[in-house]
């Protein structure tokens, strides 16, 4: 992982505060488990309401947590008054997601003044073992001078 310097020394508080406002993450039972400069990790425990017809975690849930992990990875490097929005992301589902939980990890590849590129992966946790089940590439937009879009 590349070494990045956050613009705001209080970035972890901002990330936590912003994450706690996300209704979808609450609905999914997702938890922010780590945030560092250019990195974020989110865990989502298994729940029957998060599955598709075969009992695997639904791709929509996986996409939501990896998009969010990538977004907060980028957000860790932004100024305290900046906002962030996803411009695009692509997810490849490489294995069925089973087990007691899934963990999404987002990592900044290239930070930019306007656009930031991240990568992400989702692993399923089965009996304590991790198995990659999804990969993501994402582009984020830094929002500046918009008091209605901070965080």
Topology:
Blueprint: H1 11-20, H2 23-28, E1 31-36, E2 39-45, H3 59-75, E3 83-93, E4 101-110, E5 115-126, E6 129-143
Antiparallel strand pairs: 1-2, 2-4, 3-6, 4-5, 5-6
How would you characterize the overall build of this protein?
- The structure is a single chain.
- This protein is of the alpha+beta class and about 150 residues long.
- The chain has a single domain (about 10-145), classed as Roll (Thiol Ester Dehydrase, Chain A).
- It is about 20% helix and about 40% strand.
- The chain is built from three helices and six strands; from the N terminus they run H-H-E-E-H-E-E-E-E.
- Strands 1-2-4-5-6-3 form a six-stranded antiparallel β-sheet.
- The longest helix has 17 residues, at about 60-75.
- About 35% of the residues are buried.
- The mean pLDDT is about 95.
Poorly predicted regions are none
Helical content stands at 10-25%
CATH superfamily: Hotdog Thioesterase
Strand content: 35-45%
Oligomeric form: single chain
Q: What is the count of β-strands?
A: 6
Tally of individual helices: 3
Rg is: 15 Å
Mean pLDDT: 96
Distance between the termini: 24 Å
Q: Please name the CATH architecture.
A: Roll
Supply the number of structural domains: 1
Derived structural class = alpha+beta
Strand order of the largest sheet: 1-2-4-5-6-3
Shape: globular
Entry keywords:
six-stranded antiparallel β-sheet; Thiol Ester Dehydrase, Chain A; alpha+beta; single chain; globular; 151 residues
Give a concise summary.
The protein is of the alpha+beta class. The chain contains three helices and six strands.
